[in-house]
Each structure stands twice: as C-alpha cells, then as structure tokens.
Amino acid sequence: MEAARTFMDALEARDPERAASVCAEDVQIELPGGDRDLVGKEGARQLVRMAPNFLRRIRDGEKRGTTVILRGLTRAPGHFANYTTWTFETDGELIKHVKFAWRPAN
Which among 64, 70, 100, 105 is placed 20 to 30 Å from 82, CA to CA? Predict the structure, then answer.
C-alpha cells in the first residue's frame, strides 16, 4: 500500500523522481484507451511529466495480496470530474504494473 500511495503523492506533487523510486526497473503502465504502455522507471517519470494538472483525491483503498486498488476522484476544476480506479501490482515492495480507469462523475 505504501508504494502505491507514494506514487499517487508524487503524481499530485508532479515529482517524477519520487514516482520512479517506488517502481521496479521493468514497471509497465497501461494508459486508458489502449494507446501504448509506458515502460520502466523512465515510463513512470514520463507519466508524471505528461499528466494534466488535475486534482486527485484518493477516497479508499484495498490490498489483495500484492495488488493495491485505490479509488478516488480526479477533477479538472470547472470542467469535469471522474471517478478513478488505480490498480497497482507489486512484488511486495516495488510497483510492477499500473493501470487506471475513469468513469464520469457528473
């Protein structure tokens, strides 16, 4: 749970190095829409650098073995809000796989 929360804090703070620090060398990040995956620590850094300046609030989380699921709200103030589900697969310490999905909140 700690690595996933650190990753989300780094995303909110726009800190690519902190996000990469909790990821495995071969982390795979699935982007919504299936465009392409980001791979490796550089992929984690790229996600943070390209992420829009949204407000992200985690409302709850659960741990299933080495998988952490965080749910919350992603908002672009004045534009839209989405319920977001983030799924982090870990090796017990480092993040190996990330995927996230949105569904409209308004």
Answer: 64
